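Input sequence (287 aa), recorded before submission:
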Amino acid sequence: MRARRLVDDAVKTLKASAAIDHWQRGRERIEAEELLTHVYGGEEPDRGDEVPDARARRFLSLIERRATGEPIPYIKGYTEFRGLELRVVPGVFVPRDSSEFLAEQAVRRLRRRHDPVYVDLATGGGTIALAVANEVLRVSVFGSDIARDSVEVARRNARRLDLKARFVVGDLFDALPNKLKGSVDVITLHPPYVAREELHDLPQEIKEWEPIHTLTDHSEDGLGLLTRAVAESPAWLGRTGWLLVEVSPDRARSVKKVFERGGFRDVQVTKGGDLQVTRVIVGRRPA
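Predicted structure, token format:
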């Protein structure tokens, strides 16, 4: 069968799946082409090419997995993020393209400083922390996560990519070195922000595949962990340090209010990403 026909059939399969969140027009074709390219070892075949039977069977098996809602990074075993190839495993939060904007915001603020210090809370597999380590000279990078499995993945990614970053197991700031207090230039956080009662409304590909602790803190409004981070961050930030938090658009106004109640200055809601859907709330440490 030719590549064109294989992809067209795969698109129909993905569109018919009730397990996939069909949030972006044309996303199914993008994913089908990505998986076919993966089967070819990273070289995208021409649409008119005849696909060997063995490769066609493997491709269709991957499409079947995707149709169950399994995220593509789990299927491939890796994902690409700001030029880095990061290994991922089931049970560890899957990095989103949307988080590139959070990394971009952090990098922009850190590059202005001499020997900057950076902390990524709820770091997962270390996605944003490693992007910062790769893009900012002389930066000291620390990542913290409550899940030991996630921290191990982050450490393995750092070693494989030969990037300097220290990852620790702990709840927010608990396991970070005390010497960092009052010296951190930028803190980032992509918190679990789904309210407890909203979990059942999530798409199947999220609620059945993502670790529950990366989706919700089980608070009534979904802002429990975020509120703690805002309250605890000032003790760790330097005098001109920034806290950056990524949330969905519907949470942006509520999170901005949490920042303002916490005394943060220059609080703004910024948006970016290819589709301008990512919201990053930024605030400077209270005076």
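Checked by second reader. The domain at 3-69 is CATH 1.10.8 (Helicase, Ruva Protein; domain 3).
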